[in-house]
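Per reviewer request, we include the raw input and output of the structure prediction for the construct analysed in the revised manuscript.
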Amino acid sequence: MHTYKKFLLAAAATLVMSANAMAAEKLRMGIEAAYPPFNNKDASGNVVGFDKDIGDALCAKMKVECSVVTSDWDGIIPALNAKKFDFLVSSLSITDERKQAVDFTEPYYSNKLQFIAPKNVDFKTDKASLKGKVIGTQRATLAGTYLEDNYPDVDVKLYDTQENAYLDLVSGRIDGILADKYVQYEWLKSKDGSNYEFKGEPVMDSDKIGIAVRKGDTKLRDDLNKALAEIKADGTYKKINDKYFPFSIE
């Protein structure tokens, strides 16, 4: 074979390898974008929030280019498994049931579940006191499962988004909400949330939040875990935490 032809073949092979490498270095992160301050859209329609910042920081550490794909909460795990995106960083609680469908990284923050209700209402959180009350929560969340498992006499009203639960609380259609403490913390600071407060102590304070990948995607999970350890070690994680909260949620 002529040397020139060898050169052309080698160059073509290099281009193919480079193209494959570039393709391999692009990942899509799945986010609900309706769960502030962890994930939502700003006035320009851009996805923002704690989850997005963590995802960006992990991608930077992995030296990959990442884009965001939004998904409704109810279908977010099926969307991951349908390869609509490569990993899911959207405040997903690590549960045994979900482990049957996806693989999780190490937790990237810890969560608590707590009730909120109007400030001027004597709202006790024991089972007897909540009997007959209408309590809102987001569908397909740990809070929804917790209510159904532990408060059989409560009228549980499920919502497609956390924002819709707040709307019904303000309009008086429900008596209270059970949800992630740090999400509610953000809403209580808002104008709409100013007449409401946390009630009782957290009913669950051992909820661990992880990043999900498809079953068997061990390399990506390991890369994410390595990057997570690195952003915690170099102060990046704390910087993101402090941007949203005056306390550590790690």
